[in-house]
Write a structure and sequence with these properties.
It is found in: Cytoplasm. This protein is of the alpha+beta class. The chain has five domains: 178 residues, Rossmann fold (3-Layer(aba) Sandwich), CATH 3.40.50; 118 residues, no CATH class; 193 residues, Isoleucyl-tRNA Synthetase, domain 2; 126 residues, Isoleucyl-tRNA Synthetase, Domain 1; 61 residues, Ubiquitin-like (UB roll) (Roll), CATH 3.10.20. It is 37% helix and 19% strand. Helix 17 links the parallel strand 25 and strand 26. The longest helix has 25 residues. The structure holds ligand ANZ and zinc ion. The site of zinc ion has 9 residues, from loops.
Amino acid sequence: QERYIPKNVEGKWQKIWEDNKTFTVTEDPSKPKYYLLEMFPYPSGRIHMGHVRNYSIGDVVGRFKRMRGFNVLHPMGWDAFGMPAENAAIKHGSHPAKWTYENIDYMRSQLKKMGLSYDWGRELATCDVDYYKWEQKMFLEMYEKGLVYKKSSFVNWCPDCETVLANEQVEDGCCWRCDSEVAQKELDQWFFRITRYAEELLEDTWNLPGWPERVLVMQRNWIGKSFGCEIDFPVEGKVEKVKVFTTRQDTLYGATFMSLAPEHPQALELTTPERRAEVEAFIDKVKKTDKIKRTAEDFEKEGVFTGAYCINPVTNLRMPVYLANFVLLDYGTGAVMAVPTHDQRDFEFARTYGLPLQVVIQPEGETLDPAAMTAAYTEVGTMVNSGPFDGMRSDAAKEKIADYLEKEGIGTKTVNYRLRDWGISRQRYWGNPIPVINCDICGVVPVPDKDLPVVLPMDAEFTGEGGNPLARVESFVNVTCPQCGAEARRETDTMDTFVQSSWYFLRYCCPDFASGPIDRARAGYWMPVDQYIGGIEHAVLHLLYSRFFTKALRDLGYVTAAEPFKNLLTQGMVIKDGAKMSKSKGNVVDPDALIERYGADTARLFTLFASPPEKDLDWSDQGVEGSFRFLNRVWRLVFEVLPFIGSAVKPDPASLGDGARDLRRTVHKTIRKVTDDLDERFHFNTAISAVMELVNAIQSFEPKNAPENAPVLREAVESVVQLLAPFVPHVAEELWESLGHQGGVEAAGWPSYDPDATVEEELLIVVQVNGKLRGKVTVAVGAGEEQVKAAAFADDKVKPWLDGKQIRKAIYVPGKLLNIVVG
Ligand code: ANZ
Ligand code: ZN
């Protein structure tokens, strides 16, 4: 077969892999395990270049590890619930299930055409009853443990998708999916109590050295731990107190008024009758604005006076109580002691409403005048106007004041987290039904075990009229209460799709396990995932939820691992003409067309060669052409040397000529380099260039037909084929077979290098005359200064610069450079 025709090669090997179940794995205790995972795709319809890149990266790792003797679990599946299926159903009048499963079939065939080394026997789709039924079971177990609860709350509401969004799904006040502006709405919602794990989630970020630092930083900031105090402020004329949370108790002596969240439960109680109408109007207004806007730095600070006063417990100052739009109900205690001199928001608020300022921290060598201040002073300084704490540094005073408050019974030291519980209710059909029944008499009643799973009814109608189609399926909704037998209504909220992706990696360990969600033994063998690969856009959402789920399931006894992903690689985007490849930009390259024209190996090679995985990949048609040409060269080279290397055996280092020894050195140095580049690293592009150089070296090696060169030549081309196998598996298998091997290149294992063969025998010395580069000479390793000089003086390029001149001195940097000074 003289010509490289990808179609002939790729189909053939894909069938062999499938027939031989080459990538099917079991929990083999005799081998080291390696769990490799790429983030599973949403079955949107077609594979895009981002997928091609993600999965090509993963496949190199998987094939390399397999060649190195690891038992590699490399599964694939579908994140199959979600809104697009329902929207498509509305648009085309079909069923979300039909749309989803058709897309899965098509995309699976696309992935198979890429020659990815998946164990397809473990494939799962999260919309399979067999998958989501286990999620319902775990949900109810978490409910029992108080890890799931229902409460009425204000939620982010996307008016276009007509569903609730988690905080993580709101970007700049807009829906992460459709970009419409997010509104606030009060609804009964289901939550996972992720906050119970806030501390452990934070703490364990320090035990994940295999994660990119910036992802860890984003998670730490998202969890947002802060240390401070809760302080009680008496209310004038009442017994009740107002509790605030502050991280700046050092500013307590400067607190001049109070700011409460408009939704604060004490807001109306405190309001005096004459202020009531105005206060109510303000509360209504704020409830309509979304939280993200309210807390934006440049959003106008607005408030209303309640008519009530608090007493500052250390200064006895009367502090007017305001409601303020920037104070949120669900952070801290929902109430803030306002210190306008040292907090910028309070400063702006005080200026707007003419409230008093008191400086309690002075900057070094300066005296702040409250009347002249144009911004709050937020740095560390010297304490003033603060009674016994005057003269201290403010950062030291923090601790002292906290102690004092505790001793006096005014306040307590507390820790606060920014992390909120994870709202998972979605008012949509195409999701996992929350398995409870709402009874007027009994309240929330879990669906009894014998009645699980709650299966999505197939006869819902998708009219696009808004609301949840599930809620309109009477046969689904109308049930009797399992507890009291009264008429009751089935819950129609479904779970956020991020719930399914929070444990799919556990189900991959045991996809056929029939007696529970997770087989402890098998999950115990595979977990944690050794290498996870996916986009940076999941830095907080999916990666935090998965960590939470793993910990929660550990506490339910399902797994032993505390962390799901040992190493994380976040790959860059694929860009073309300077922009992210996307339909809206009109710059997409279709993987099908690419594979049709060049074959999967070229598509893989290009995406791996064009840039390091973490960086963005700039699409280049010439680059694709170049990769294709390279594969053609390798192909031709193998068939060119094939007649000469027939039955050649391993080279005998002792009997090699100079040229052969040089080639062999290049071969072994290349093996060493590629191994280094792939082992626990992702330097694919430099590994590929090293192989390209090796191919050049083989091409220029002559004479190829000399019998004594056959062993070295054979070793050289075989190494090329082996080193390329993880990148371009089809070509590699075909050439390996052509070279006379049976059983496949992967099974042959990864080549090892002979350290002796890599030792340099000659050195290249740069020769300068009066500091200018004039030539290069080759000398034997171990040559002394005199030999180097002799070679330099005799060199044709150097000689003309010395002719007729007097040599004053020569400076030799051993092994590198000779500078001859003439005059
Ligand atoms: C007084 C003070 C003085 C504050 C000062 C800051 C500076 P972190 O660090 O992010 O935890 N705060 C407390 N609860 C709030 C809520 N529900 N909505 C809006 N703001 C709230 O932030 C803690 C600080 O944020 C607290 O410390 C409080 O203002 C404010 F010079 O108290 B501080
Ligand atoms: Zn009941």
